[in-house]
Design goal:
Blueprint lengths: L1 H8 L5 E3 L15 E3 L5 H11 L11 H4 L2 H6 L9 H8 L1 H11 L6 E4 L2 H11 L3 E5 L9 E3 L2 H17 L5 E5 L5 E10 L3 E12 L9 E3 L6 H18 L2 E11 L2 E8 L6 H8 L3 H9 L4 H4 L10 E7 L20 E7 L2 H11 L20 E5 L5 H13 L3 E4 L1 H9 L5 E2 L10 H6 L3 E6 L4 H6 L1 H9 L4 E2 L2 H17 L7 H5 L2
Parallel strand pairs: 1-2, 14-15, 14-17, 15-16, 17-18
Antiparallel strand pairs: 3-6, 4-5, 4-6, 7-8, 7-10, 8-9, 9-12, 10-11, 12-13
Helix pairs in contact: 1-11, 5-6, 7-8, 13-19, 14-19
């Protein structure tokens, strides 16, 4: 939409190719010409033959049109913006590794396997856990984290099949950076200069697909030195690749080390969020750059870090699909996003929870003859998360909640002198936690698991939580953010609402 508007401002007629009638971009008056056609090479070439455009932009449609860049250029179609060769340098694993080596940038250890035996060998060399994925697939399809050889064996056949469907034989095996913080960066470059649109810190730890993770702009727990390094590495990559238009880079931060996970030489799903959060229309700037303008001519420079905080929260369709598990992982599950803006991270996260439909039941303070209501928080976490679970439990008790937990988690809480009622897992027989959820006394669920069997055993818990519309958190980082939100919600007594324009005018 913004790209079309920008190109119209420059005097171009625009031709839109889209097969999704549910989007605003397929309104009859958005573009000069509209084709309801699938994004296949054959269809796009037929449209180019009919319309004879001065050029084609592939950056604004996600991964699908990006895969057409090389064959379109080979067929004689002029690409506007980043060249097909530059796109291939970012997309092809071998060529991208050469770019990182040239720039002396870090990436997790990795290997490319062309069969099951090769996948085992590379995983053993890297060490478990590993991230397994086919190359050139969308939305993290068939991507998983394998913690053992048995888990790798269970998933690798699926990865091979998905790779074959995508027209490749390659399976990518990456070192999984446990407990790392993921970061998304969007930038615009004109081939000579690159400007940073925004740096977003993921709230969920590494391992959750970037499209599913909540994120915050500006980063709420990264040092200025780390953020500065991330911005500089983004500029280096944009200029080395020769990007003209938009580029998205995904980083992982572990300790003081910054690793590059992947580069997408296109508009990312985060561009609308960044544009609203900062008040800068990145897609419009990028479209004008691709049409031949320079960043200097457009007067574009790095955006100032906003004084306010914006949180992006993903929205999931789980309730509409019987039998679907709600646990988050490398494969993308979300179907939309909402946004919360406030002067602090905690208030912004609380607003985003409300927007996402998470009904947070706050304890009543009591008063008169009315006893204070003490809703309950259920906590059941893997061993590695138990120290932080103690912090969450202590904070939730201070906010007025009672704590119930499964046997192992309750024991950890009691060792930390935190009162907790023990409740059975579903596999241990009733009365169990799912019965308690059906009873309507639980206000929030924190459930983290490790390993295929544990995930399977706790499925009914997550499913019932979803059906009861209870806020649930399957990562410890998101549960901590929810603590912040609930504490500020209890203290504020209301939510301050302002327009995007008012926030942007600060």
């Amino acid at each position: 939409m913004h790209a079309v508007q920008a190109l119209r401002e420059l005097g171009f007629e625009t031709v839109m190719v889209n097969c999704n009638p549910e989007t605003v971009s397929t309104d009859y008056d958005t573009s000069d010409r509209l084709y309801f056609e699938p994004l296949t090479l054959e269809d796009v070439l037929a449209i180019c033959d009919e319309e004879q455009p001065v050029g084609v932009i592939v950056q604004f449609g996600g991964q699908t049109p990006l895969k057409l860049a090389v064959p379109l250029e080979k067929a004689g179609v002029k690409l506007l913006g980043t060249t097909a060769d530059a796109i291939d340098r970012a997309e092809d694993r071998g060529r991208f590794d050469e770019v990182l080596t040239k720039l002396s940038l870090k990436r997790p250890r990795s290997g490319i396997a062309t069969g099951i035996d090769g996948a085992y060998k590379i995983a053993e060399e890297i060490g478990y856990p590993v991230l397994v994925r086919p190359s050139y697939v969308l939305g993290g399809r068939a991507m998983t984290i394998a913690y053992t050889r048995a888990e790798l064996e269970a998933y690798v056949a699926l990865a091979v099949e998905a790779a074959r469907d995508a027209g490749t034989q390659s399976i990518l095996i990456d070192e999984f950076l446990k407990d790392a913080i993921e970061v998304d960066v969007d930038c615009v470059a004109d081939g000579r200069r690159a400007i940073i649109g925004g740096v977003m810190q993921h709230i969920e730890e590494a391992g959750v697909h970037s499209g599913d993770s909540s994120s915050v702009l500006p980063p709420h727990s990264l040092s200025p030195e780390i953020v500065g390094s991330i911005e500089e590495q983004t500029r280096m990559l944009a200029l080395e690749l020769g990007v003209v238009g938009l580029m998205n880079v995904q980083f992982a931060v572990k300790g003081n080390a910054v690793y590059i996970l992947e580069v997408n030489p296109r508009a990312s799903r985060t561009v609308p969020f960044v544009s609203k959060a900062t008040g800068r229309p990145l897609a419009k700037i990028a479209a004008k750059v691709m049409a031949g303008k320079t960043l200097d001519e457009l007067g574009a420079s790095d955006v100032e870090v906003p004084r306010h905080v914006a949180v992006k929260q993903s929205v999931f369709p789980f309730a509409k699909f019987p039998g679907v598990d709600t646990i988050l992982g490398p494969e993308m599950r979300s179907t939309g996003e909402v946004m919360g803006i406030a002067d602090t991270f905690a208030r912004a996260f609380y607003k985003s929870m409300i927007a996402a439909g998470l009904d947070v039941k706050l304890p009543d303070s009591g008063g008169g003859n009315k006893p204070a209501s003490r809703p309950r928080v259920f906590i059941s976490v893997k061993d590695a998360d138990k120290p932080v679970a103690c912090i969450i439990a202590r904070r939730m008790r201070a906010a007025g909640y009672e704590i119930i937990a499964t046997r192992g988690t309750a024991a950890a809480l009691q060792r930390a002198r935190i009162p907790a009622e023990v409740i059975n897992k579903v596999a241990e027989g009733g009365p169990h936690v799912v019965d308690a959820i059906r009873g309507g006394t639980i206000a929030m669920v924190v459930n983290t698991t490790l390993g295929a069997r544990e995930v399977s055993d706790s499925y009914s818990l997550r499913r019932q939580t979803l059906l009861a519309n209870i806020p649930y958190f399957t990562t410890i980082a998101a549960a901590l953010a929810a603590c912040d939100a609930i504490e500020v919600a209890r203290g504020d007594g209301g939510v301050r609402v302002r327009s995007l324009q008012e926030w942007g005018a600060e």
